[in-house]
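Predict the 3D structure for this chain.
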Amino acid sequence: MKSRNIKTRLAAFGLALLMGHSPLGNLADVHAAETKNPSEPVTESAEISETEQTEEVSEAAKHLVTAEDITKDISDKDFMVETCMEGIHYNPEKEDVTLERIEAEDGGSYHPDQEGTYIATYWVVPKDARDSYSVSRKIILTDTEGQAHTEENGGQKQKEDTNSEEDSETPVQEIPDVEVTVSGEDADAQAARELEEKIEDGEVMMLSGAENTFRAKETVHLEKGETIYYPSYIGNYLTCWFTVNGKIAYCLESHRFSPPSGDYVAQVLDSNKNLQKVLYYGYGGAGDITGSYLSGKSAEEKYVYTHIAASYAYAGEAGFTGCKYEDLVNAGVIAYIDHLFAMEEPPKGEISLSKTSVKAVRNGNVQKTPDITLSGDHRNYISVHVPKDITIYNKTKGTSAENGALKIYGGDTFYLTAPMLHTGKYSSGELHGSVGETWRTLILSTGNSNQDIGVFESEKANPVSFTVDWLEMTRIELFKQDADTKNPLDGAVYGIYTDSKCEHLLMEMPVTGEEGKAVSDYFEVAIKTVYVKEIKAPDKYAQSDVIHKVDVEAGKTVTISATDERVRGAVHIQKFDKETQAFLPQGDSSLAGAVYGLYAREDIVHPDGKTRVLFKKDSLIAQGVIKEDGTLDFSELYLGKMYVKEITPPEGYTVDPIEYEVDLAYEGQEVAEVTRDLTVQEQVKKQAFQLIKISEDGDQTETDLVEGAGFKVYLVSNLSKVKSGELQPSNGEQLTAEDFRGYDFSKEEVAVTYVDGKAVPVPELITDKKGYALSPELPYGLYVVEESTVPENLKAIDPFLVKVDEDSREPMVWRIFDDRPFEFLLKIVKKDAQTGNPVLKAGASYKIFDMEKEEYVEQTVFYPKKETISVFKTNEEGYLVTPEELKCSTYRIEEVKAPEGFVRQGYESSLYEGETIISPLEVTGKGSYKENPKEGIVITVSSNTAHQIDPDTGAVIVEVEQPNDEQVGSLTLTKTGEQPVEVKGDSLLVKAKRLAGKIKDAVTGEDTDTGVFHDFVYEESGVEGATFELYAKDTIYSPDGAKDEQGNPVIRYEKDDLVATLVTDTEGKAVVNNLPLGSYYLKETIAGDHFVLNPEQKEFTLTAEDDTQAVVYEGVAYKNERQKISISVEKKDAVTEEKLEGVIFGLYAKEDILSQQGEVLVEKDTLLEKKATDEKGQLTFDSDLYHGKYYVKEEVRKPGYLPNEEIWEIDASYTDQNLAEIKLTKEVENQPTKSQFTKTDATTGEELEGVKLQSIDQDGNIVEEWISTKEPHVVYGLPEGTYTLHEELPPYAEGYVSAEDIEFEVKEDGSVTKVEMKDTYSKVEISKTDLTTGKELEGAKLQILNKDGEVLEEWVTDGKPHLVEKLPVGEELILREITAPEGYEIAEDVKFTLEDTMEVQKVEMKDARTPETPGVPQTGDDHWKPILLFALLGVSAAGLMATMIYKKKHGKTEKADETKKEE
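Done. Predicted structure below.
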């Protein structure tokens, strides 16, 4: 060592220690401290100017705003400091706010799952030109649920390093002239004095003032290698080559003995940074620099250099033992040490993230995560890989990456962004730091006298990971088109709604653009389905009422297409006659058929803005013809100005020259069609005619004009027979005047003209004195003129035709000629009195009686032979005409024979309802038949009698109609079935049996009385309310032989047609009258209350005997089965569903049961029957019940079950007539008693598995046996009583002993019987004692092993008996000593077996002392040290006094040699 005063160096070290300066920082610092006066105050050269600090704070304060404090609980999962803007006042539309940093109030890190007060700073960036500024606020996190107290809940458990007791042990060294001088407060002076005293007494290790704090223990293997001697240029000392777990290790205390090879407990030392640097950068370390820094040195030299550096870093200048300071300087050891100490700390592999699970938030049109900070060494980085569409930003470095990887270094802050439609969860996976390892200093504490060993070992650093929950967003893209052209439409506005009625608007979409496209804002898919509907349509388009149901999906833009119909135009034209002022043509003219054109008054363009001009001005847009109703519709028109003009007039009219204006203007989106109504008028063609009435002579020459002749004008097309088609042209296609010869104009209307919209009949034209007559102007058409007033002694002329087909004011001129005498033919037409139709059947026979001559008419016929006849017969067309004319007289027509299906005149009957006759055509169940004969026809014929003129022969025909009634049928239906008449009680025998049963029940205490107590009695009678349908078995034709338009016979009823519906009365009868003759069948459709439908179909035929039978009678009878009732009960266990036998139920009437006549058969609440369930838990009551309401209740329950108070109300009312039997079944459950057994640990209360338990009744019978599980054992259905819970087999192997039996009681009151049996542990007290004294020993390491050698318990004795619980019972165990206390031999194994008892059992192991053995040589001794020690022992006693006197006078002297050296 340098010859400097060690006193000064010690003083400097002591001062540094007291002032807080580490002596292990840098050797230069230590030497500098030696030269300083300890009394001078120490100042720091790196102090910051107070003025500079004030200026910085003042500048920052200009841009700092303090917001309100907020308090949140750490259990609030929705709170995120990055997104919560609560209490911060800003304008979100004009400013963006992001979290800049957050730290604990004391400067520590932010932990969102740990309570405390934190300071958060946010950066506010205005969107305009204003300056950005910071907002600061306090965030107080509370922990109301205690979630932050365990590491599992994310709490940060403080792990404190513990000081090793061995650090205080130092070798006794005599150091002369050591003085410690300090100035300052009394406390520092006192500490300095105590330090000086300890140095003098050798109690302090020389300069080992490092704050060595340790944590985390583990066992490692130390291997002591060959001896390495210090190079001579350094010193005269040695050490050994050590490895720990195969890695190079170093002695850390040169002044102590070196330890032997073996297993040691190592502790982690994190606080000594210089030692970490030496072991990392020194020889053999992970960052070994000796290859360059100590190049040229041997491995042994590098090891020694590093050994001295490590020992100095750990123990201070004691690490220089055996060396001189100037030699170390000269050898470069001190420079090597300074170089190592100046190196950067070894890289650390530990990394952590400020957040491991974040939720993205919306930031403009992207998603952004909160900031995440990577904590760790700045040289350590992670590579974060992100897929396509995700971008990661290193906020600290200003770098980013998409679809790739980005490096994030320790201390960097980063965040991720994604498009708004990106969804799902991003998981980073395990992110390993680039360093990958964490280096730690392991210190092997080898004993009080041996030195510590140091090694730098690595352990794999844990990776980090984080996840991002992206938003679940979606949006809708809409394309708007014209429904016809498919061109895109701009100007449409759509709304997005949350309900199908579109009443709740979520958002309004932008207006569609030129491309017809609109894209909504983003919204969350919490609403799975939305509805899109148009709010505003484009100009000239109708608003669409289509609601688009859109099923949205997160992360996708849903595209929908929508179309709008253009607003269409329509022109409705109504055609009127100018004179009728309505759609009423005159004469034979027609308003229909006029051709009109619609023309463009201006250019007509398409509203989509892209199709351009559709119709040029004055071009024809559309052309149409007036329809038969006088209208013309132009539809599907485009909007614009137009006009309507007639192109071609209709028949009988002149052309209309007027142009009618039409303006189809847009009236808003609600009007889908703009309509305009237009009325156009037409002028009919008209002309008058003039006639001249003359008389004639035999040569057809004109003679005198005739006055007073009257003429009536008829429009041919308006005549009834012309309209019906009855009058057809006789020659050619056109009617001629000859076709109207003999026509009866008496019922026809004359032609009309119109004035001011009113019809004016054409008056009768009367010839004047000149024989002239002039008609008014007649409308276009063909007219027939009839001589209506014939002058006296003249015959009427034949009708003639007048045709008006020109529009002229000049009348037409006609000349009319005159003509001719009267007898008649009698025509008898056979009519159906009911239908009024002719009876198209031959065979009706008549006689004609001339009442004036009082004789029957006889006439001669010539075909097929000549004969005289007095009976006249109708032909197949249902009429007859006398072969010869009759003179005017009075005649009676008598019927001799009626046609088939009709009643001969004089034999009729009528259906009467009171005084009213019901038509035979009405099929009915009403009324009754009475005879009602009709009189024959009497007719008087004269020239004034109405008649017809035969158009072919000109003969006069007088027509007479003779009606006949149709023959009909009458059906009587009878319906019978069983009806209840009374209810019988028990017979005497049954009552006697029941009485005996009750006596027995009274003795046994049971209730077994069962049986039917009341029984219903039924008799057959008429059934009311049954409904039958009557169908035609075959097709039934109308008896009059009428035919339809196709010439087929008119059908009265098709085959299988429903003819009538019959409902039986109180006597079970139903009648239907006025049935047409034919074949029928009956089907029952409603059986009537209480009866089953009879499916039988019954047939019958109605046939008359002759034409004198007016009514045919028929009868049909039916019988129906009564609907039966079956009531069943199924009884089972409510829990196990086991069928329960022997449960008795009672059947009661819930209401008065009434007979068909309303009499009470059974009174309400009468017990009808009692019956017990069988072995299947089922019963069916035997009572033959009548329809009504009943109830069933439990009368007698089964032991072990709670009473079931439920009343089963039964509605056995008549419903389904197709059901032969109503089957009503009820499943009834009984709740069993419930007993719950738990087997628990007496200490923890946890359920024990594997224990065999028994439940025993009072008679000692085992009613239940089971093995316990983790869940309570439940037993159902134990009858009421007292039981015992017994443990048959405890879990001995798990360390439990038998529990005592537990008595418990079961009640049938619905309560749950809960029984808990607790097992206690086995307990044994282990004593480790001195074999001689019996005193408890400490420091022995003991184990208890089972038969398989498994260690059940291990501990180190502390001088007291050790209590062990839960050791297996009944199994041989071994007590084994692993390590004996110092000075004791290891004892032999002790075998013991624990008994099944709750008492504490005792086991003792005794240790014997070991004899003393010679000491082990110190590895740090020199080779001449043993000889020197023996020599010094001889003179030590003699020199002791002299040394003490010398110390008092001159102070202590330095010893020439050190008493202890390192190995």
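The radius of gyration is 65 Å.
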